[in-house]
Amino acid sequence: MIEFKLPSLGADMDEGKLLEWKIHPGDTVKRGDIVAIVDTAKAAVDVESWVDGTVQQLLIDIGDKVPVGTPIALLRAPGEAADSAAPPAKSAERRRISPAARKRAGELGVDLVSLSGSGPEGAITLQDVEAKAAATTAPAADRGAEMRRAIAAAMSRSKREIPHYYLADTIPLRAALAWLERRNAELPVTERLLPAVLLLKAVALATRRYPEINGHWLDGTFRAAPAAHLGVAISLRQGGLIAPALHNVAAKPLAVLMRELADLVQRARAGSLRSSEMADPTLTVTNLGEQGSESVFGVIYPPQVALVGFGKVMERPWVEQGQCVAMPSVTTSLSGDHRASDGHRGALFLAEIRQLLQQPDAL
Amino acid sequence: MSHTSYREALREAMRDALRRDPRVFLMGEDVGRYGGSYAVSKGLQAEFGPERIRDTPLSELAFVGAGIGAALGGLRPIVEVMTVNFSLLALDQIVNTAATWRHMSGGQCSVPLVIRMTTGAGRQLAAQHSHSLEGWYAHIPGIRVLAPATLEDARGMLWPALQDPDPVILFEHGQLYNVEGELAEDVAVDIHSARVRRSGNDVTLIAYGGLLGKALDAAEQLAKEGIDAEVIDLRVLRPLDDATLLASLQKTHRVVMVDEGWKSGSLAAEVVARLTEQAFYEFDAPPVRVCSAEVPIPYARHLEEAALPQVATIAAAVRTVCGT
């Protein structure tokens, strides 16, 4: 029997609240299938299974708030026989639900399947429905405050624990933007690339030579990550931000990255991220875009060890071969964890990004 | 306010009616010289004379029939039947005649008759004198059925009953006659509505007549356990005041109906069926009925007590519907 535990979906997550089950006893589950939707302080996240199996039993009810690591379901491994001693599925007999409770549940949109009853012979009563509705809706009203608390906790921890150092370099983008313009001219609008994709790809490729920038500081040591899963900082319309992972950025062509980035932003804003995207980032990239400032020095998202910041792409006076020219450029910063890397290596990492961006067709 | 008893309140109601309307008279077995089997009419013959307080032969069929004739002839008779058990001898007069004349005469004749009778158990009078057949009469269209459970209703219901142009049956529970309390001088009550006797939020306890007191006692006991029961006195058993019952159900979402009649085909069955038909989606627990055991009411004290709804059994039923 496999105990499916509530995964950590980020350093700022201590507990999660079950919003919806996507599986039922008897269902076959494959690795990567969505098992449940869990509300963290930041977002409603689709939790994926990391194993194959058959659902034996669901251990928590919708609306329950449990700490990270709590078993939430039991799965039978492939080939494992059904445990005859296990309690029968709830659907075996008709649930007792009072007519008033059923009516009110309809009005409030409360899912009765997951409720346990407190009435005569375990019947679900009006009070059970209203209590569940209150538990489900109350935090939503305070969503903004919870988001702020989560950000506050993670950022305070970062500044308390991580000795940050900061570097910045202004990188010329004439070659990159010209290349982008040529390429986009041949493509339909929906497939055009944004400069952000070039920047992300360059960061990911740069980590190959400077692995100490890409990974996690855990239990007093640095652990390099096997691949660059870039956390993309996305500001949310209702306030706050979230930085889900774009997976394996170094290995993917630009067109694929563009598609995945657009999808990620859209889903982050719709509140339907997957658990692997929340848990996996190895290095966060924040890109202020056209509305932003010239440069940004970010706070590292623990337990990551660095954050790369891009200011807005703009033309700057630039001295080239003894002449002053207008040069499109971007100020690129590195916030580094001094426990994991030193400024010298950090500077080389930024130089690598600069170098990569001068040869866009190699990206 | 004056201190009085249920019996005295009934007597005062009759004395008042006899004074106010010369058409009113009382007849029945032993109501005159003896003063009534339950002493309700004691002293009235001395005050109003044998013409208006009339002793009758021991024939319920005959004297109820005579009452119907007097009513048709323009008088306002009050007929006392000793107990509801004995009234079965007059069922033909009540059901086939009194209740039907308005309809069968196309509205030409009405029967403004009031029949008073004792009902209920609890006094070791055995099966011939102890049954609760109010529900049978409440089944019959054409008559109004009242169950005064308080001093106020004992004093106040008779006069409006006499004003009703159709037959009215007034049930006096035998265990209420000695109940004493304070009563206001001017009593005016209606004979069409149910009353909330105790307001509460958790469960609706519906009772009438002799069991209202037990329902209120059960509610007080439950209050100490944190269950806030609303107690409704039906008062009028026909026609039923659905609106008051529904309003309470919509507030509490739980119903316990207390009825001294037997459960099968009972007034309790009718009340629960009406609520279920009209407000099914308001129920938060199955409705429960607390009724008498389905046996002829026993003579032996302990068996009689066991056969009747008691404070403890009412409270237990309430706990069940409240899930505690």
From TrEMBL, chain A:
The residue ranges of the Peripheral subunit-binding (PSBD) domain are 96-133
GO cellular-component terms in the record?
cytoplasm
The keyword Lyase belongs to this UniProt entry's keyword annotation: no
Which ranges carry the Lipoyl-binding domain?
1-76
Name the InterPro entries on file.
2-oxoacid_DH_actylTfrase (IPR001078), 2-oxoacid_DH_E2_comp (IPR050743), Biotin_lipoyl (IPR000089), CAT-like_dom_sf (IPR023213), E3-bd_dom_sf (IPR036625), PSBD (IPR004167), Single_hybrid_motif (IPR011053)
Task: Say yes or no: keyword Transferase present.
Answer: yes
Instruction: Give the molecular function GO annotations.
Output: acetyltransferase activity; lipoic acid binding
The region called Disordered is annotated at 79-101
What are the alphabetically sorted keywords of the record? Answer: Acyltransferase, Lipoyl, Pyruvate, Transferase
**Pfam families assigned:** 2-oxoacid_dh (PF00198), Biotin_lipoyl (PF00364), E3_binding (PF02817)
Q: Where is the composition biased (Low complexity)?
A: 79-90
Gene3D superfamilies, per the entry: 2.40.50.100, Chloramphenicol acetyltransferase-like domain, E3-binding domain
| Cofactor(s) named in the record | (R)-lipoate
Catalytic EC class: transferase
Q: What's the EC number here? A: 2.3.1.-
Task: State whether it acts alone or in a complex, and with which partners, per the record.
Answer: Forms a 24-polypeptide structural core with octahedral symmetry.
Supply the PANTHER family for this chain: DIHYDROLIPOAMIDE ACETYLTRANSFERASE COMPONENT OF PYRUVATE DEHYDROGENASE COMPLEX (PTHR43178), LIPOAMIDE ACYLTRANSFERASE COMPONENT OF BRANCHED-CHAIN ALPHA-KETO ACID DEHYDROGENASE COMPLEX, MITOCHONDRIAL (PTHR43178:SF5)
Q: Which family does it belong to?
A: Belongs to the 2-oxoacid dehydrogenase family.
Q: What name has this protein been given in UniProt?
A: Dihydrolipoamide acetyltransferase component of pyruvate dehydrogenase complex
Q: Which organism is it from?
A: Pseudogulbenkiania subflava DSM 22618
Q: What is the lineage of its organism?
A: Bacteria, Pseudomonadati, Pseudomonadota, Betaproteobacteria, Neisseriales
TrEMBL record, chain B:
**What positions belong to coiled-coil segments?**
none
What keywords are assigned to this protein? Oxidoreductase, Pyruvate, Thiamine pyrophosphate
Residue ranges of domain Transketolase-like pyrimidine-binding in the record: 4-179
Q: Which cofactor does it need?
A: thiamine diphosphate
Q: SMART domains given for it? A: Transket_pyr
InterPro entries attached here?
THDP-binding, Transketo_C/PFOR_II, Transketolase-like_Pyr-bd, Transketolase_C
UniProt xrefs under Pfam families: Transket_pyr (PF02779), Transketolase_C (PF02780)
Q: Name one GO molecular function term.
A: oxidoreductase activity
Q: Protein name, please?
A: Pyruvate dehydrogenase E1 component beta subunit
Protein source organism = Pseudogulbenkiania subflava DSM 22618
